[in-house]
Here is the input.
Amino acid sequence: MSDLDFFVDLMTTRTVLGLDHTSTVAEVAAVLGPGKISKTWRGRQDGGDTMRIDDGLAEFVWTRWPPLNTWYLAHYGAYPNRLDGKNKFPALNAHYGRFRRTELLFDELAAAIRARGFTLELDYEWTRNDADDHRQYYEPSSGMSLITWTHKRSRYFGTVEKMVTAYQTPAARRGHRFPRDHREQEFGEHAQDLAAAGNVPAWLDRNEPRDDDRREWWSLLLTAAGKGDSPVSHPGLLALVREAVDREVNPPGDDASLLVDLAWHFERYPDDPLPAEETRPMIDHGLRRWLAAPPADLAEATRLSRAHRLDADELRLSRRLRDQIHQVAQAIPEAGDPDLVEQLRAWAPLRPELLRYPLFARPRLNRHKQLSSRRPRARR
Here is the structure.
């Protein structure tokens, strides 16, 4: 294993040593080290608190807002621009060995990602003809993003600055992005019409396409309806996602787990939370539909969770399973049907095991101890 393997693992699996947005603060601290937790600082404009676990290269940041006492992940990832050969990252070194002393080149990383069977797509380009010029790329199946400098006169030209994924609303977290043909305005108008119509099923019957673009149309509609400034209310968004579930728009499990996640979050919103009588039926419906058609059956998910080597398609499936198991398992306390709870409890333990550390090879713990314990010999 090498430091390049770490960066490729991060982009293709969206994990840092098996840690991601589904991991708790305690789980991250257990791997990266409790001594890496920075002090919580306050004074944010929204009145919230922030906490960081940072080993010098990898970073996890959480926020929480009163009156809730729950930490929500703000972002996590790695910052290759910090590589200078002086810092040590014990947890990462134990698995990947020593890290380079110079910047990470984008072309080197992109080639290694392609060799794994994954791709990078351009998200946006910032061009002002100055040192701030950069491009943001993302890996479609993992949703991980990176930023690379593009101004040829910059000393950082062609290098990767950071690789991060941000916590977003459940609808936006699916990775839907508007194409560059001004369809954002079109679907913003659809969201306004949907909000004004009130009757979601009737509106969909009038507007839903029946051709090959149906799934793309739904993707863009859910993106527009799930934006923070969307005119669609939370109950309206739940009704929309439930229709996507019942109309079987997307691959198995995708919309059902999203419905559960949305209802679970909307019940906990600090401002204007939805009452349980509105969210619990949605949660039960989503759980029932997810258990009826998950991305893979329990036996296959168990196999993936125990494998030490996975091909590209198995990695993509493992990523979907881990995300969706996290979404549905968090709602176990809210489930009203005991049969659903019993079935979900068989799935929940697989979440931390899928894409676990170590995935691609056994950790080089002994080698790391040898390197860290070496001392220069005195000259005779």
User: Anything to note?
Assistant: Residues 312-329 form the longest helix (18 residues). Residues 3-166 form one domain. Residues 169-175, 361-380 have pLDDT under 50 and may be disordered.
